[in-house]
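During the reporting period the student researcher (J.K.) took over the structure-prediction task from the postdoctoral fellow and processed the backlog of single-chain submissions. One of the processed entries is reproduced below for the supervisory committee.
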Amino acid sequence: MSDRRVSRLPLAEAIAAAVAGGVDWVQLRERDLSAAALLALADDVLQRGVRTLVVNRRLDVALALGCAGVHLGFDAVTPADARRLLGPGGLVGVSAHGPAEVATAARSGASYAFLAPVFAPRSKRAERPALGPGALAEAARAGIPVLAQGGCDASNAGALVAAGAAGVAVTGAILISDDPGAAAAEIRRALDATMRPEA
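J.K. obtained the following C-alpha cells:
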C-alpha cells in the first residue's frame, strides 16, 4: 500500500524498487489527491513497469487506466457494482476490521479483503487495537483471500501466512526504509520460505 507522506523516496520510484524487490501488486492509496493528480501518479507507476495496480476508492481512475482493480472504502460503491464495471477478471478488494466483516465481504462478491490491524501499524498511529493472528485465522475461513495488514514485516510475515493469510499488505516496513527494494526482498524471502518451505 502506498503512502507518499512516509516514503523516503519519490513514491513512484519507491514503488518500482519495491516491485523489483518482490512485491506482487500495488495498492495506490493516496486519498487526499485530486482525481487528476491521482491519475497522473497511477500512470507514472504503470509506466515504471508495475503490472498489477489497484487504486484505492477511485474506480474511475482504475477504469480510465485499465488498472487491475479497485480497493473499496466503506463509503465507496458496492463490490457488486464495482464488479459489474470492472468485469469478471477485475480485482475488487475491501478493508475489514474483524472476521465478521471479511465474511460479509466474501458474500458481497469481493475478490479479497485486507484485515487490519493485525499488529500495530508502522506508518501511522494505531486507531484500533491489534487483532492478532487468531482473528486472522478465523477470517481466513471466510472463503476469500485475506491479506494481513498492520505492522507486517519480514519478522512476522511467515507466521501470518502460517496463520492463514494469503499474503501481507505492507506500507511502513517498505516505504520508511532507505532501500525499499531491499526491504521488499527481505519480506519476499520470509513469505516464500513459509509458502514453499524447503524439503
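The committee noted the following: The chain is about 40% helix and 15% strand.
J.K. will present the remaining backlog at the next meeting.
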